[in-house]
């Protein structure tokens, strides 16, 4: 995510002025490639029938099933032909304006490091598995590709309107943790879910979380958790509808309205919600008691 607090204010030594670095693909060890392969094999088995058609198609057309950590240059050449996006490496978190500038110009910033073998299930910082396996397949979808570029421009605008808190929640509940209602049933398109072994089951199958149809203002008012599974998932009817809704709405007056309203706590159901699952919240409760 972009809106994090511990970022530097100028590029670290070795980084370019736009904060990118070389992926340094040749420096990955055999063990690091093997970690990718282990994570890949686990998820690839789980995701047919769970991940959205767009994500599954992206994985296929980008040939992400080849062994080892993908080379960003090769991957970008394939991706650019489809939707104009490229993948660039950055040294961890970058400032919001840098993040949005890359995004608005169809450059997806990715970490180049991979988690250690003892961190297969959980890690707070986005590594190359989350960033590439989780995010990049959706970027092969032309409509989603347009959504994320529009989001980058929206981010630049939100910075000037002091509204990043609201826009960041939209990212969280769509790009990172979104669900989509496909004709065959609910599917995952959020990168934080597809890259997680446990959450890719929890998000669809567990009775604990709420599953609610996405409403822009509602989502932008809703808090989220970064330390555990989500207590709310928001569902889009289609990627076309997500793009239409976000591009056709002028967020400036919406932000002004939201600034007058209270935030919504993570598990709360609101009067206007179109609820698909009213969650038991059993999982979250089991963690606190
Ligand atoms: N329509 C938004 C605005 O007026 C921009 C945006 C588009 C934001 C798509 C997110 C996604 O700021
Ligand atoms: Fe992410």
Automatic annotation (TrEMBL):
Essential cofactor(s): Fe(2+)
GO molecular function: iron ion binding; phenylalanine 4-monooxygenase activity
Domain of life per record: Bacteria
Reaction(s) catalysed (UniProt annotation): (6R)-L-erythro-5,6,7,8-tetrahydrobiopterin + L-phenylalanine + O2 = (4aS,6R)-4a-hydroxy-L-erythro-5,6,7,8-tetrahydrobiopterin + L-tyrosine
UniProt: Fe cation binding residues: 130, 135, 176
Keywords: Iron, Metal-binding, Monooxygenase, Oxidoreductase, Phenylalanine catabolism
InterPro entries membership: ArAA_hydroxylase (IPR001273), ArAA_hydroxylase_Fe/CU_BS (IPR018301), ArAA_hydroxylase_sf (IPR036951), Aro-AA_hydroxylase_C_sf (IPR036329), Aromatic-AA_hydroxylase_C (IPR019774), Phe-4-hydroxylase_mono (IPR005960)
SUPFAM superfamilies on file: Aromatic aminoacid monoxygenases, catalytic and oligomerization domains
NCBIfam families: Phe4hydrox_mono, PRK11913.1-2
Database matches in PANTHER family: AROMATIC AMINO ACID HYDROXYLASE (PTHR11473), PHENYLALANINE-4-HYDROXYLASE (PTHR11473:SF24)
Protein name stated in the entry: Phenylalanine-4-hydroxylase
